[in-house]
């Protein structure tokens, strides 16, 4: 029986020394990670990929989910998995680290099929590529106990499970469907039968941002894990590590603002940090020779809180406090409008961002429940209209009217 890569390449039989020949050139649909690249390539990688977790122990947060998955692996009872939640919370990193633990870094390419939103995943792909990969069984894999084959050495309970089960988890394949909520309904319907029919050969891991966009038939066949936004403490650990290893010049207050503004998204935090680090590097003069290894180190500018807010394009706290103070204390509606419009132009603020930041500040104001409900309900309506395409000029006036109406209720 033959095994297939993404392009359905047939693996050659094992040689006399029981070695396995892998098709490393066929990488269609595969994601390259820093774990598989030389040092020179890692230096040019985005920090999101460079610092992607290699093992399950490196994954930030969600310790309860990781503990459950580890128990599944140790007991050799891995079910079909559904990992869903907001972006940047570690879903893809978790399943890639799990694949490296099960098969070892050398066998991942042969035993794992990964498809994401950039690949065609219509009904034809499900019936041909996925079905063919799931229906074939790897017969040339070395019968190595799982505890020895796992990347980083599973050890402990994992090694014990491997010794009891022989070749253990390396006997079945893993199909990863990233961003599966983008699959067509027809493809999801065709996938449910394949999941049942080839369970002995294959395990499926479905990754999605929104579980309600998946077919109920798929949901019922998977063990579901929700990845909630990461806690600030978990994000801070990796951010501090990157700051130290990359020698980023950043103020402590700016690092705190970065962690807060990431809102549980590790990918966003690292991307913003790398962008700010690049912007702090002075540009070489025109016609200057290229830098040499023995040149003195480049002196970079210090990253401040203002740099972080400008990179994210979020309203700075002082501007939001000024807008709120003006709305609460100024009875002249025209003066309130002029203040908000001038700040929007001077600082390049968007009304949608102002509404989001203003709602976070309003809840800190001590007012009656009736006034607070009126404010939040009015801001929600304005945000919905802005998202639907309403003009900012009129909706800015509506924002002033909502806040001032609440103030008049307090004075009544």
From TrEMBL:
UniProt domain AAA+ ATPase: residue ranges: 77-233
Biased composition, class Polar residues, residue ranges: 16-26
Keywords: ATP-binding, DNA replication, Nucleotide-binding, Nucleus
Region of interest (Disordered), ranges: 1-27
Annotated compartments: Nucleus
Record-linked Pfam families: AAA, Rep_fac_C
Database matches in SMART domains: AAA
Family the entry assigns: Belongs to the activator 1 small subunits family.
Record-given protein name: Subunit of heteropentameric Replication factor C (RF-C)
Organism annotation: Sporothrix bragantina
């Amino acid at each position: 029986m033959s095994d297939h890569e993404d392009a359905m390449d047939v693996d050659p039989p094992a040689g006399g020394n029981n070695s396995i020949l892998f098709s490393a050139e066929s990488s269609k649909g595969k994601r390259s990670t820093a774990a598989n690249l030389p040092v020179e390539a890692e230096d040019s990688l985005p920090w999101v990929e460079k610092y992607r977790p290699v093992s399950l122990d490196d994954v930030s947060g969600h310790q309860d989910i990781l503990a459950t998955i580890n128990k599944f692996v140790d007991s050799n009872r891995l079910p079909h998995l559904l990992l869903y939640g907001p972006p940047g919370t570690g879903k893809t990193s978790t399943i890639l680290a799990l694949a490296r633990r099960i098969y070892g870094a050398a066998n991942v390419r042969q035993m794992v099929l990964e498809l994401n939103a950039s690949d065609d995943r219509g009904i034809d792909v499900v019936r041909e590529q996925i079905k063919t990969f799931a229906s074939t069984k790897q017969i040339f894999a070395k019968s190595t106990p799982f505890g020895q084959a796992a990347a980083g050495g599973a050890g402990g309970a994992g090694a014990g499970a491997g010794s009891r089960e022989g070749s253990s988890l390396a006997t079945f394949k893993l199909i990863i469907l990233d961003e599966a909520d983008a699959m067509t309904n027809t493809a999801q319907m065709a996938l449910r039968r394949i999941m049942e029919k080839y369970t002995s050969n294959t395990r499926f891991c479905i990754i999605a941002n929104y579980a309600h966009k998946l077919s109920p038939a798929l949901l019922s066949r998977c063990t579901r894990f929700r990845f909630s936004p990461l806690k600030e403490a978990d994000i801070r650990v990796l951010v501090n590590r990157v700051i130290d290893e990359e020698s980023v010049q950043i103020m402590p207050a700016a690092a705190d603002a970065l962690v807060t503004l990431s809102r549980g998204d590790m990918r966003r935090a690292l991307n913003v940090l790398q962008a700010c680090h690049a912007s702090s590097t002075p540009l070489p003069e025109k016609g200057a020779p290229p830098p040499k290894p023995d040149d003195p180190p480049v002196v970079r500018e210090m990253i401040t809180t203002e740099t972080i807010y400008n990179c994210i394009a979020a309203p700075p706290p002082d501007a939001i406090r000024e807008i709120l103070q003006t709305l609460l204390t100024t009875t002249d509606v025209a003066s309130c409008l002029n203040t908000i419009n001038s700040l929007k132009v001077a600082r390049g603020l968007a009304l949608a961002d102002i509404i989001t930041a203003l709602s976070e500040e309003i809840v800190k104001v001590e007012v009656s429940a009736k006034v607070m409900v009126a404010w939040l309900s009015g801001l929600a309506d304005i945000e919905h209209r802005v998202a639907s395409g309403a003009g900012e000029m009129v909706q800015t006036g509506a924002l002033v009217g909502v806040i001032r109406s609440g103030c008049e209720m307090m004075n009544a």
